[in-house]
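Lab meeting, item 3. Inverse folding demo.
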């Protein structure tokens, strides 16, 4: 299955709790961390909820 790389570009400080939970669910939580995940609808939906905090690096 196809994969995408996601990089955290925004801090979770002073963000709502649900946004922090989404970051943790993606495997992020610290600035500039990059994770590689399967390209699924669930992952794409999480990215769309956090466009100000994550960036698709590759995929």
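The presenter then showed the designed sequence:
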């Amino acid at each position: 299955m196809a994969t995408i790389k996601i990089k955290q570009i925004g801090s979770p400080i002073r963000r709502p709790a649900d946004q922090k939970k989404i970051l943790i669910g993606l495997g992020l939580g610290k600035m500039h961390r990059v994770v590689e995940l399967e390209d699924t609808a669930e992952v794409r939906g999480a990215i769309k909820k956090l466009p100000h905090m994550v960036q698709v690096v590759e995929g």
